[in-house]
User: Which sequence fits this backbone?
């Protein structure tokens, strides 16, 4: 018996160990293998169902294979309010979220770490709200001050755009969801945006309009790209082989997914072959019962494949990319990290971005910061001082959890100083100066120690009126650079009544200030500074914060001076529906500095309550790079941050080049008297330009000036090197 027991035990041990071997954990299959296995199991109908929208913001999945719908949401500075699947704003959802400052305010911080923080908030809130893709950042180059969506975008300079977009994208995707860089490419105006054909040179494309997207793909690792509405060189951008396949996928190695802008697809065969992976949009004309099977990349694809006119591998490639980002964002294995919503930390980031993005443009006689103890009464004037902006602008609208207006922010901090308010003007379509409102505003201004005026542009208020009285909104461009609603008359009356006037302008960019700027001692650009914008502005006005924002766009003296007006076409020939970018590579300061035109305020301009001194420039050239180092000292009596900008100025090049180009920048914080050494490494590509005769990036072996300064026109130290 005993013997049997031993034998039995022996066999149990052997079989267990064999069993264990048999249960050896399955080798973890690669994502690529999992994707191919899924594609093999899918029917053609299921594949086609995945490559087009199946509701306002979703596209199809395959339930039986565990492939969920893909859920997208706007927008670039906050998660948009919930829409029903049929585009009805669902006003009952708990969808009030963190309303971050808009893109141009983020860019005005010149702080790429803040870009990451901004993206992290946005991605976390999108994740919490059940979104797989947040449709941002919008990074189209700001070519004209009239573009209605400049507030959503970043800059006139491709290097600044690249640095801010990469941080933003990494932040969003660190939260387990996808970013979607848009609009690829040349959506630089809203006038006829869904029909205009953009014509530009290879140099303008390579040196100005592509770099931000290239950085988003190659440095930011962006998961998705949104094609734009317009045509590019005669072909719709969202079904454009050259852009989507040649450049994006082949040249840049983009592995993610390309979606169209909403209703931006115009064909089936062209779209299928172009490299477009997903047709988004809603046939609004089919509302309230949209039939998504009628989409270009829907039933008609089935017919073409079944008739052998389109090879199925074309569809498989689209599915492959869509599944790739779905695996990358744990949509299939369900292991996505949790999102957060409306947290104090998110609101703190909103405050930080506003605090660092608001720009002090002028401060004559140091009228700012306001000394509370010496200021008994302040008159706050201007409709924008107490207007909530978050729901404006179009698709980028956000139902803010709360929004501190300038008036509220000032009241929060004013202490014993009395604050009185008058709107001074009204916001409605084509409103002119209102004598009654001006009279009332002037009377309280005259009786105050100081006047803070808050005006500027505005947003169409909400989805229903988004193009109504909109001066910063999607689908509409500004008519001109004039302050709307008769504000010039109001400001001129105010500065007569009380010369201690601070003008705060909100909006997406430059406005014409000529009628009152000389008489006005202080001017601040506050963009659309998000839910904490009023607090940030007030902290700057009263000196609790030292302003550090810098203009990411040139503010022209007048619209006619701008290169898109001087050299280019804007908005183009609307009969022929073409716009030629004859301003070419001379966008923004590249034009003003090359053609010696004085701007109102230069690219990179922004004052501080302290002063900075630059020195000890060292240029150490090596075989293929240049090490640049210099010191910056805070020579004032307040702590503050300076954005040191480095430009290269080439000698006589083979082809014409701009007078200078931004190639590095950094934002450093210094205590009074503190000095820090900054060092940059300029690689060869910092000196290169696109030779459109050779169709290649080249570097001329010539002398280059290295310019380091506080703005593009305030160069403090410089040196020469020969490359
Ligand atoms: C809009 C915009 C795009 C937005 C999309 C979805 O037309 O151009 O930026 O993400 O449609 O709302």
Assistant:
């Amino acid at each position: 018996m005993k013997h049997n027991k031993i034998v039995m035990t022996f066999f149990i041990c052997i079989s267990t160990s064999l069993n264990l071997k048999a249960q050896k954990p399955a080798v973890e299959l690669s994502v690529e293998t999992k994707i191919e296995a899924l594609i093999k199991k899918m029917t053609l109908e299921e594949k086609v169902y995945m490559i087009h929208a199946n509701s306002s913001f979703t596209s199809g999945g395959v339930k039986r294979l565990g492939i969920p719908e893909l859920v997208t949401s706007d927008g670039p500075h906050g998660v948009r309010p919930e829409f029903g699947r049929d585009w009805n704003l669902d006003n009952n959802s708990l969808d009030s979220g963190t309303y971050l400052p808009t893109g141009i305010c983020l860019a005005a911080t010149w702080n790429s770490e803040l870009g990451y923080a901004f993206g992290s908030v946005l991605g976390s809130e999108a994740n919490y709200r059940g979104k797989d893709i947040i449709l941002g950042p919008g990074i189209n180059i700001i070519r004209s001050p009239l573009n209605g969506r400049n507030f959503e975008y970043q800059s006139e300079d491709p290097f600044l755009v690249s640095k801010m977009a990469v941080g933003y994208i990494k932040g969003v995707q660190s939260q387990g969801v996808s970013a979607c860089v848009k609009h690829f490419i040349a959506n630089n105006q809203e006038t006829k945006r869904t029909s205009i054909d953009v014509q530009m040179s290879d140099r303008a494309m390579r040196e100005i309009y592509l770099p931000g997207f290239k950085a988003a793909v190659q440095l930011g690792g962006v998961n998705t790209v949104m094609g734009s509405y317009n045509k590019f060189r005669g072909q719709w951008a969202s079904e454009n082989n050259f852009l989507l396949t040649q450049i994006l996928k082949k040249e840049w190695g983009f592995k993610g997914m390309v979606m169209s802008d909403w209703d931006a697809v115009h064909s089936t065969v062209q779209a299928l072959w172009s490299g477009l992976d997903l047709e988004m949009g809603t046939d609004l004309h089919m509302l309230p019962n949209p039939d998504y099977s009628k989409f270009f990349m829907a039933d008609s694809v089935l017919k073409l494949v079944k008739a052998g006119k389109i090879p199925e591998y074309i569809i498989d490639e689209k599915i492959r990319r869509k599944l790739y980002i779905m695996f990358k964002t744990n949509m299939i294995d369900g292991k996505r990290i949790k999102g957060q919503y409306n947290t104090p930390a998110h609101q703190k980031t909103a405050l930080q971005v506003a605090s660092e993005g608001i720009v002090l443009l002028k401060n004559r006689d140091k009228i700012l910061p306001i000394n509370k103890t010496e200021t008994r009464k302040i008159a706050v004037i201007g409709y924008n001082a107490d207007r909530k902006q978050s729901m404006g602008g179009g698709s980028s609208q956000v139902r803010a959890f709360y929004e501190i207006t300038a008036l509220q922010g000032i009241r929060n901090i004013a202490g014993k100083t009395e604050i009185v308010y008058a709107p001074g003007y009204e916001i409605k379509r084509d409103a002119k100066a209102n004598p009654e409102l001006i009279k009332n505003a002037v009377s309280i201004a005259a009786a105050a120690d100081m006047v803070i005026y808050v005006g500027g542009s505005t947003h169409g208020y909400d989805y229903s009126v988004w193009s109504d009285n909109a001066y910063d909104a999607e689908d509409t461009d500004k008519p001109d650079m004039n302050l709307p609603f008769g504000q010039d008359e109001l400001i001129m009356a105010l500065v007569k009544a009380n010369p201690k006037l601070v003008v705060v302008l909100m909006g997406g960019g430059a406005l014409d200030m000529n009628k009152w700027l000389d008489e006005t001692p202080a001017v601040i650009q506050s963009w659309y500074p998000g839910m904490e914008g009023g607090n940030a502005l007030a902290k700057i006005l009263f000196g609790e914060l030292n302003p550090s924002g810098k203009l990411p766009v040139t503010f022209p003296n007048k619209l006619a001076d701008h290169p898109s007006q001087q050299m280019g076409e804007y908005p183009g020939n609307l009969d022929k529906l073409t716009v030629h970018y004859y301003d070419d590579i001379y966008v923004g300061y590249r034009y003003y500095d090359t053609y010696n035109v004085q701007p109102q305020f230069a690219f990179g301009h922004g004052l501080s309550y302290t002063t900075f001194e630059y020195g000890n420039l060292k240029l150490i050239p090596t075989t293929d790079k240049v090490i640049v180092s210099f010191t910056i000292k805070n020579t004032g009596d307040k702590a503050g941050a300076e954005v040191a900008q480095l430009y290269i100025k080439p000698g006589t090049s083979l082809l014409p080049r701009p007078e200078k180009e931004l190639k590095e920048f950094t934002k450093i914080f210094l205590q009074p008297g503190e000095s820090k050494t900054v060092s940059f490494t300029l690689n060869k590509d910092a000196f290169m330009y696109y030779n459109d005769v050779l169709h290649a990036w080249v570097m001329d072996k010539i002398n280059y000036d290295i310019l380091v300064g506080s703005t593009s026109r305030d160069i403090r130290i410089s040196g020469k090197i020969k490359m």
Notes: The first helix runs from residue 2 to 22. The CA atoms of residues 80 and 398 lie 5 Å apart.
